[in-house]
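Sequence in, structure out. First:
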Amino acid sequence: ASWTPLIPTVMPAEDAVFTAVWANATNTAYKIEHYKQNIENDNYTLESSDTETKTGTTGSTTAAAAKTYTGFTAKPVTQQTIAPDGSTIVKIYYDRKTATLSFNTDGGNAVTPITGKFGAAVTKPANPAKTGYVFNRFEPEFPKTMPNTNTTYTAKWTAGEGTAYKIEHYKQNIEDDN
């Protein structure tokens, strides 16, 4: 800070007014909070590990940046003006990605696709059926929670045992070769 006009070194003969000239602090603290969308609803939650403290110049704009979280997409960041008392908070929100699980049953009955938010518990569908075969598994292995990308699961089959079949014997007719 400084004074305007400059304060003299000798007491002046007349009354004088001096005005303080302040410089903005360059190390003013502000916070950045990262809120992730919940699985069960469209609200957002702040975890204690998702808060950062930064510094900047009072009166200038924050420099908050979104983080990269697997399975989440950041919404646009709204920067704030840095308050002199350190009370500035920039809130960044992250939406959960939605994925669809599709099924290739390789000739078996159709399985309805499953769509849900990343990280949500997912229930394995009923095993598909295919005449003459026994369902073995899905590849890749079916997840317990929703992945962050669309994925197709292919049914793997084992040939069934004891599958009934018929053998027919035909004799050629002498009269017409049929």
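Second:
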Amino acid sequence: CALPIFETGVKEFGVITGNEIIKASDDRLAGYQNKLNQLGLKLKQSQIVSGNFTQSGAYRATLELFKKSPKIDGIFVLSDLMATGVLEALHELGKKVPKEVQVVSTDNSPTGLYTIPKLSSFDMKALESGRLAAEMLFDLMDGRPVRRVTLAPELVQRESTRNVRSEEHTSE
């Protein structure tokens, strides 16, 4: 399993989504829910809160999430920018990351290197996607058949999730 929070005993999951207008938000949420379903876990509607792809929105969403589900111990955030707001709210709530609440995000932007703790994030392979899109456009322009390509995201594990191999890794 590629997502460490599934391997480190998280019992209550929460999700901070973007918004329904942006398809990537729906796709990321669907992928997360599929993974939970594969593991026999369910995500309640009350455990999904929109952060509107903003830092302040995710901050408010995190506070709302903990009012609805105070036992949340793992949060999946649909962008690194929003994750900064999540980490700020968790700090304000007195929650230690990753000891009490683990946080994983998507994008693997440089932002995650400057948060405290450093953010675990899925690399969505944006550069590779762009290169492949350009290749496919040239193929199309040259009359060659266009292929369908799916790139699997890769987790870059940092300090906001517990290290599966070394449980003593707990940044506070």
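Remark: The radius of gyration is 17 Å.
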